Amino acid sequence: MLGIVGAPGSGKSTVCDQIVAALGNDTVIVGMDGFHLANEVLDQQGSRDRKGAPDTFDVAGYAAMLDRIRERRQVVYAPRFDRSLEAAVAGATPVLTELDLVMTEGNYLLHDAYGWGSVQSRLDEVWFLDTPTDIRVQRLIDRRLAHGHDRASTLDWVHQVDEANAAIVERGRERADFILTVEQGPSL
Q1: Which of 14, 29, 63, 92 has its C-alpha lying 20 to 30 A from 77's C-alpha?
Q2: Hey, CA dihedral for 59, 9, 183, 20, is it positive or negative?
Q3: Tens-place pLDDT, residues 113-135
Q4: Where are the alpha helices (DSSP H) in 24-118?
């Protein structure tokens, strides 16, 4: 099990997609984002305006899923985050028992608070994507605009929420097994 970690907009999904393209059907991607708490729960907690922060996920559920995948006793149906819905879709990613490589990607695989400290030990290796801030920020802006957000709210979200989360992610960098420098622009 390989973890791919990086700040928002670092290219985690793209790198995972490229690995799957190279290795084929013996590989699957399970995103940490499938464990976002539902918007209704975030509203009740008063944390929807920080969605994506470390405490806005079902970390115990994510860790339990990683354990089930590692056991390889049966197919595990992992959730997938749908950006167009801004919500997780349950049971969207089948993880077959015979796969050679299971990748999981997300911001907090190396974080040590809110229960995240239990994740790294469940993975065989974790790679950290080091991407220049200007490239990451432009990707985040482009992504939000492409999903219909207006420019003012996009800039506010990226600079206030995503960049606050990026600072948290960066603190786990030294715990990575490998650091991959990503220097390409938005079309990675």
Answers
A1: 14
A2: positive
A3: 999 999 999 999 999 999 999 99
A4: 39-45, 59-71
